[in-house]
């Protein structure tokens, strides 16, 4: 969680640097006592004793929860302060945090694919389940499937489709082994009404650019799914938001269990959490990034700034709501762990 939130803050940091703002601090961890820090140019880097995320501090009034700028910022040129920037630049800085939460999973998924492999484009069998129908019929890893039930299969999906339609039945498979074709007649198992042969497709190691492209496509698919799901939950089944959601305690608890079982499943979970945090941060709830973007949008429509005290009050109320939800989820997580309730999206 610390890594994911730190990446989020890094988005704000790098966007501010590119725009030309004075970045006073960029820390790993929440504001509090520092473990160490060092200065490079005008920016102080380091880590705090609360290693949950990170924060970036710009010159000027950088937060709607802050009414006045620090005394040390008064000598900073206006063009280098956050509060004097045009709204479109502020919007870029705000959006950069959630955007980085969408970028991180691309690399996580790409790395996972490069280690675990992706399905080969051929119909070559990668693994055969021990004592399964395929093994009993004599099929081996490395055999290339040519036809299934007399139908020539051009790809793995076509073979799987035919097999699933024949639960409990004997089928005929023609496969190539060492340049010679052989005929196999396995009797399929019945797996919940679908034929089961007990084979898996051969995997290959993708090139870096291919892995990144697949990571991008997968991330895009997950973003669409999560966004639609969140919309449905909020607009139609808001009760499920409290019932089936997981808070920080449960996420850490489940993450610890998953990483003990399978490291790559843990990486996959990190990718999902990062995307989820990115989407949630875009909700128009102050003081989340989405709330601050909404305020910038309202200011753009009315062609003028909103009263600072009003914005402060709105953000303070939003912060109180978020803290109340956090407390609720912490206690809810503890009770669900004690009761052994299933993790959302998992077993």
* Strand coverage percent: 15-25%
Strand order of the largest sheet: 2-3-1-4
Taken from the alpha-carbon principal axes, the silhouette is: elongated
Give the averaged pLDDT, no decimals. Answer: 84
> What percent of the residues sit in helical stretches (DSSP H or I)?
40-55%
Task: Please characterize this protein's 3D structure.
The chain is of the alpha+beta class. Helices cover 51% and strands 17% of the residues. It contains 10 helices and 14 strands. It has helices at 2-19, 87-116, 133-137, 156-164, 208-235, 238-244, 248-261, 263-281, 289-302, 308-339; strands at residues 23-28, 34-40, 43-48, 54-58, 118-119, 125-128, 144-148, 151-152, 173-177, 180-184, 189-191, 194-196, 199-201, 203-204. A 4-stranded mixed sheet has the order 2-3-1-4, with helices on one face. A 4-stranded antiparallel sheet has the order 8-7-9-10, covered by helices on one side. A two-stranded antiparallel sheet has the order 5-14. Strand 9 (173-177) and strand 10 (180-184) form a beta hairpin. Helix 2 packs across helix 5, helix 2 runs antiparallel to helix 8 (263-281) and helix 5 crosses helix 6 (238-244). The model has no long low-confidence stretch (mean pLDDT 84).
Provide a compact summary of the structure.
By secondary structure, the protein is an alpha+beta fold. The chain has helices spanning 2-19, 87-116, 133-137, 156-164, 208-235, 238-244, 248-261, 263-281, 289-302, 308-339, and strands at residues 23-28, 34-40, 43-48, 54-58, 118-119, 125-128, 144-148, 151-152, 173-177, 180-184, 189-191, 194-196, 199-201, 203-204.
């Amino acid at each position: 969680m610390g890594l994911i939130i730190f990446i989020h803050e890094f988005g704000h940091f790098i966007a501010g640097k590119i725009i030309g703002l004075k970045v006073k601090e960029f820390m790993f961890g929440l504001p509090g006592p520092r473990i160490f820090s060092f200065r490079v140019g005008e920016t102080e880097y380091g880590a705090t004793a609360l290693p949950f995320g990170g924060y970036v501090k710009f010159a000027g009034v950088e937060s709607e929860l802050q009414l006045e700028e620090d005394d040390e910022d008064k000598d900073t040129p206006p063009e280098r302060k956050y509060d004097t920037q045009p709204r479109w630049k502020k919007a870029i800085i705000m959006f950069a945090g959630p955007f980085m939460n969408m970028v991180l999973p691309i690399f996580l998924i790409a790395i996972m694919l490069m280690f675990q492999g992706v399905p080969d484009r051929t119909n070559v069998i990668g693994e055969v389940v021990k004592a399964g129908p395929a093994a009993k019929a004599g099929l081996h890893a490395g055999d290339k499937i040519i036809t299934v039930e007399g139908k020539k299969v051009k790809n793995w999906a076509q073979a799987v489709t035919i097999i699933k339609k024949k639960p409990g039945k004997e089928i005929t498979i023609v496969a190539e082994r060492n340049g010679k074709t052989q005929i196999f007649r396995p009797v399929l198992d019945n797996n919940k009404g679908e034929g089961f042969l007990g084979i898996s497709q051969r995997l290959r190691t993708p090139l870096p650019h291919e892995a990144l492209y697949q990571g991008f496509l997968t991330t895009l698919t997950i973003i669409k799914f999560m966004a639609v799901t969140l919309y449905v939950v909020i607009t139609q089944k808001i009760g499920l938001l409290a019932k089936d959601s997981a808070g920080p305690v449960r996420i850490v608890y489940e993450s610890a269990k998953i990483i003990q079982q399978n490291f790559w499943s843990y990486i996959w979970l990190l990718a999902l959490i990062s995307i989820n945090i990115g989407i949630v941060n875009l909700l128009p709830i102050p003081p989340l990034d989405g709330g601050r973007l909404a305020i910038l949008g309202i200011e753009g429509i009315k062609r003028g700034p909103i009263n600072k005290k009003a914005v402060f009050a709105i953000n303070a109320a939003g912060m109180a709501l978020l803290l109340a939800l956090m407390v609720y989820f912490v206690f809810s997580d503890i009770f669900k762990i004690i009761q052994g309730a299933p993790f959302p999206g998992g077993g």
